[in-house]
């Protein structure tokens, strides 16, 4: 399968050049360690803030590697060669983002689980939050990839990526954090929020490759 | 490498005008390149050689006029028939030529001869060195080997020989001759003498 070749190459390159999952995981852990110092150490405050802070930090961790995603392919001529590979650019984008995201972002739900427990959430709530994060991360990765494709090759692309991706990430932020918060107070809305997270994430994953393809085509011209 | 011949696929450019960022570059250009023929584009810096090659690759829409491979417009045909070498080599710093060529060969849907392509460009000794540790000329050789493994009938080469030494230029010339012998065609933009036998010269002017 030709798309499979792109998937494997991107996963391999993520490890070879970018240290694989080390950078996003380290970034996520660092934010979660610093947040309580700013929030204050009251148990009740930390419990209440935990799910939201953890989701937000996960978004930052996903954003962290975004500039390289398409920026390098534009700069080194790879994008042109992909454009003439005979594969639709949407398929290239799907394989590329999945390959990179799976190689680099897989520890984030685990870090989220540890973070939830450290913030004093009940084990059940921390587990629900980790599940919701696992569901949200493909969607977040593709949202960020849309922004990365739109800004590929632009100067200060990283800033533009954050500005484009932040508003798009609102639904995933709301549902993911709500799942963890609801589970923390034993509210049945937790699983509803988890399902909504899955739905939004799937919706984004299904449509994003076409948006990315359109952005990259405009970039090629 | 004994790969089968290509089906003859002539390139026809008729009354082509191109512009870049609103500046007209090429106007009213018509030419035809037959299968088995090489066309070398000459012209001053900024005259539009790269823009012309990008139009031939179907990436850039002409302001007016028409580019066809056989009977099919370039925009539709190019992704299946063109191998494009731009200014940049499309190499990843952490990938060796062997890994990179294996990937592009897979992506081109061909079990093309990766060791053969490396030998043709004199890359044998560099096969497993990450490309961040290759010289400019060595990188260009690796990029040219990628054109070989893509196994497409139309080669569009932008300054293919710029960083190459004499040995590299000779290897390129041999590869081009072999490609033309299989019924392929080559369009190359250059400032250097390429010593390709029987290459036709097209001077581009404003």
Summarize the structure.
The complex is a heterodimer of chains A (221) and B (206). Chain A is mostly helical and 221 residues long.
What does this structure look like?
The complex is a heterodimer of chains A (221) and B (206). With 221 residues, chain A is mainly α. Chain A has one domain (2-220). Helices cover 85% and strands 0% of the residues of chain A. In chain A, helix 2 (22-39) packs antiparallel against helix 3 (43-63). With 206 residues, chain B is an alpha/beta fold. Chain B has a single domain, classed as P-loop containing nucleotide triphosphate hydrolases (Rossmann fold), CATH 3.40.50. In chain B, helix 3 (97-107) packs parallel to helix 5 (136-150) and helix 4 (114-120) crosses helix 5. The relative contact order of chain B is 0.22. The mean pLDDT of chain B is 89. Classes of the chains: A mainly alpha (221), B alpha/beta (206). The interface between A and B is medium-sized, with 22 and 29 residues.
DSSP strand content of chain B: 25-35%
Number of domains of chain A: 1
Q: Which structural category do the helix and sheet elements of chain A fall into?
A: mainly alpha
Note poorly predicted spans of chain A: none
**Oligomer kind:** heterodimer
How far the N terminus sits from the C terminus of chain B, by CA atoms, comes to 41 Å
What CATH architecture of chain B do you see? 3-Layer(aba) Sandwich
- Provide the β-strand percentage band of chain A: under 5%
Cα gyration radius of chain B (Å): 16 Å
């Amino acid at each position: 399968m030709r798309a499979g070749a792109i998937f494997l190459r991107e996963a391999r390159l993520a490890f070879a050049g970018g240290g694989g999952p080390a950078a996003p995981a380290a970034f996520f852990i660092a934010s979660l360690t610093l947040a309580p110092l700013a929030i204050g150490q009251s148990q009740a405050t930390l419990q209440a803030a935990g799910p939201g802070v953890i989701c937000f930090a996960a978004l930052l961790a996903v954003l962290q590697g975004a500039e390289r995603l398409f920026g390098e392919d534009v700069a080194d001529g790879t994008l042109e060669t992909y454009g003439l590979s005979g594969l639709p650019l949407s398929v290239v984008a799907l394989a590329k983002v999945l390959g990179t995201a799976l190689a680099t972002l897989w520890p984030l739900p685990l870090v989220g689980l540890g973070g939830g427990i450290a913030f004093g959430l009940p084990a059940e709530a921390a587990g629900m939050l980790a599940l919701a994060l696992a569901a949200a991360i493909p969607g977040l990765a593709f949202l960020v990839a849309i922004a990365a494709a739109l800004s590929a090759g632009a100067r200060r692309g990283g800033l533009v990526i954050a500005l484009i991706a932040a508003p798009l990430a609102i639904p995933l932020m709301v549902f993911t954090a709500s799942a963890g918060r609801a589970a923390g107070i034993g509210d049945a809305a937790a699983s509803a929020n988890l399902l909504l997270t899955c739905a939004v994430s799937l919706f984004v994953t299904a449509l994003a490759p076409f948006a990315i393809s359109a952005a990259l085509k405009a970039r090629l011209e | 490498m004994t790969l089968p011949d290509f089906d003859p696929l002539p390139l026809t450019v008729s009354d082509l005008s191109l512009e870049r960022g609103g500046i007209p570059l090429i106007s009213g250009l018509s030419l035809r390149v037959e299968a088995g023929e090489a066309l070398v584009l000459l012209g001053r810096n900024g005259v539009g050689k790269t823009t012309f090659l990008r139009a031939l690759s179907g990436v850039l829409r002409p302001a007016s006029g028409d580019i066809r491979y056989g009977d099919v417009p370039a925009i539709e045909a190019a992704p299946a028939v063109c191998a494009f070498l731009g200014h940049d080599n499309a190499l990843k710093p952490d990938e060796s030529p062997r890994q990179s060529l294996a990937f592009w060969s897979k992506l081109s849907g061909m079990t093309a001869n990766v060791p053969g392509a490396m030998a043709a460009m004199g890359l044998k000794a560099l096969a497993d060195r990450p490309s961040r540790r290759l010289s400019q000329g060595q990188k260009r050789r690796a990029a040219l080997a990628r054109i070989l493994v893509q196994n497409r009938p139309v080669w569009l080469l932008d300054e293919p020989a710029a960083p190459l030494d004499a040995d590299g230029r000779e290897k390129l010339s041999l590869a081009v001759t072999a490609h033309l012998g299989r019924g392929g065609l080559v369009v190359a933009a250059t400032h250097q003498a390429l010593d390709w036998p029987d290459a036709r010269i097209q001077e581009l002017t404003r």
